[in-house]
Amino acid sequence: MIKNFYMILVADEDSIIKEQNFIGLSLAMGIISSYLRKLGIYTYIHDINQFLMDKSFTKTDKELISILYDKDRVLSYIYGEEDTTLDRMARLFLDENWKEYDSYGISIGADFSLFQIHLGMVIAKYLKKETKRPVIVGGNNISYLYIFKDFYHELLTAAIESLKFIVKGPGEKVIYKIINSIDKGISEEIIVREGEGLLYLEDGEIKCNVEASPIVICPTWDGLDMKPYSYPLSTSQRENENILYRFPLAITSQVVEFNRRKNRENTLFIPYIFNYNCVYSCAFCTQSDTDRGQLIIEDVERVVEDIEELSKKYNSKYFYFLNNYFPSSLKFIKEFNGLLKERNLEIYWSDCGRVNGMTYEKLKLLYESGCRKLVFGFETGDTWLLEFINKKLDLKELIQVLKWCKEIGIWADLEVIIGLPYERENEFMNTYNFLYEYRDLINNFWLNEYFLIPNSLIGRYPNKYGIELIKDMYNYNMLLNANRDKFLNENTSNMTSNSRLWGFNEVKENSFRSYGEMQRENIDKIKRLSELRNPEFNQLFKFYSSMNKIRESS
C-alpha cells in the first residue's frame, strides 16, 4: 500500500554556478502536495534549489557535473547501463530521507534547461533502480520535450520505455490515479494507456493521452523550510510594495541581499492561481493549441477563503497571482473586493491583466483589493501586426488603461515581442515609438525575442502566415554541447535559446526575408529597445550592487 510520496523539484544550472539569496516557491509542488494530502497520501517536498543554497562548487566539481550534457551516457543510464559516476551524481542532489518513501515524483522544471531535464531523468532512474518503487516524471519541460518530440525522440523514448510514467500537463490527479491503480494491482501498460496526460509509444511514435484538466486548490508546502522563499522586508509598506511589485527582478534580488544583511524580518511572498486557460487565441502562443481546455475560474468566495487561509498560515499579506489574467468580470471584481473587506483581510498582489473591457471602475476596485501591479500583453505597437497575430488589442484602449493605472496607483508592465514574422523596420519603429511616447505610464516592459512554437497557430498553419518552416535547425548533440560550454563558462542567462529549434523564412510574394536576416536584425532591435528602459532602475541596480559589494568586502 502506497502511503507517502517524495516529490523532487530539480534545479537548473543557476543553482550550481550562482550564489542565490532567494529562490522561487513552486506553486505546482504546493498544489500536488495539497491534493494528495487531502486524499490520504503524505507528501514530502525536496526542492534541490533550496538544498544547494549553502553549497559551493569548484571548477573541478562543475567539470564532473557537466557529464549530464553527455547524451549517450545519460541515455544508456536511463536504459539501465551501470554507471557509478551517474549514481554518485544522483545521490549528490538527494537528501538523507529519500529511502523512506513508497513512491516518487520528479519535476524536471519549466526553464528549457537541458541540464535540469537530464538531471531529473538520471535521478528518476536512480530512484527506480535502487528502490524498485513507482517513479513519476512531470513538469512543464515535459510539454517542451513533447512539442519538439521528433527532436527529442531518443530521450522521450528512453524515458517512456524505462521510467514508464511520464506526465504532460497537470499532475495532481494523474499521480493519485497511478498510485491508486498500482495499489489495485493494475499493470503499468494499462495505467499508461489510460492515464490522463501520460506519454506512450505506438509503433515507435510518441503519443500522449488527453491532459488532465487543472484544478484550483489551496496549496500547501507543509514540511518545507519557508525561509529561502521569504523576503527580508522593511517597516515601510510603500518600500515593500516597491521591492515586491515595482522593481524588476534583478533589482529585487539586490535589494533582498541588502536587506538580508540588515537582519530584517523575513516574509513569505505567496504564489496562488485560481484560473486556467485563455479564451483568446494569439497566433504566437501555445495557448492557441487545440488541446487547451475551456477557461476555468474558481468561485470567488472559494478564492478569498484560500487567500485568507494562506495569509494566516504563512503570516504574510503579499501574493503574486499566476493567472493568465485576473478575471475581467465586474461582478467577480466587486465580490472579490467586498469579501476581502468583510473578512478585514489586507493583502497586496500582482497578476497579469487584459485590456479588453477594462474600465476605471474595475481598476479602482482592484487597487482597493490590494492590486499593485498588472502585466499586460502588448507584444507590438503596430496595428497591422496586432491583427496579423490575432491579438485583439486596441492600442487606444491600452493607452487609456495605462493612464488610469497611473492615476489610480497600479504599476503597469508590458510584455513586448520583437522578431515576429513580417516585423520590418516600420513595424518595429511603431513599437519603439509607442514605448517611448508612453514611457511615463509604463513601469517596466519585458522584452522577449519571438521563437516559433510548433503547436501554436503560426506553427500549425505556416502558409496562412506567409512563412516556410525550418525544422530542427540543430541536432541534439549540438544543442547539448552548446549548453555545456555555457555552463562551464557560467553563462546561462537565456535558456529560452533551447526552444529556438525551429526557424522560418518569410516567403510572401516579393517579400522574402531569411531567418538569418531576422536574427541579425533582432540583435539591433533588442539593443535599441533596452535603451528605453526606466533609467531609475539602472541607477538603483548599480547602487544596491555596489552597496552589497562594499558590505561583502568589509
What's the domain count? Answer: 2
Described by strand count, sense and barrel closure, the largest sheet is: 6 strands, parallel
Structural class: alpha/beta
Number of helices: 23
CATH topology of the largest domain: pyruvate-formate lyase- activating enzyme
Please state how the strands of the largest beta sheet are arranged side by side: 10-13-14-15-16-17
Distance between the termini: 56 Å
Mean pLDDT figure? 93
Overall body shape: globular
Give the C-alpha Rg: 24 Å
CATH homology-level superfamily of the largest domain: tm_1862 like domain
Report the CATH C-level class of the largest domain.
Answer: Alpha Beta
User: How big a fraction of the residues is strand?
Assistant: 15-25%
The residue fraction in helices comes out at 40-55%
Number of strands: 19
Low-confidence stretches: none
Q: Examine the secondary-structure arrangement and name the CATH architecture of the largest domain.
A: Alpha-Beta Horseshoe
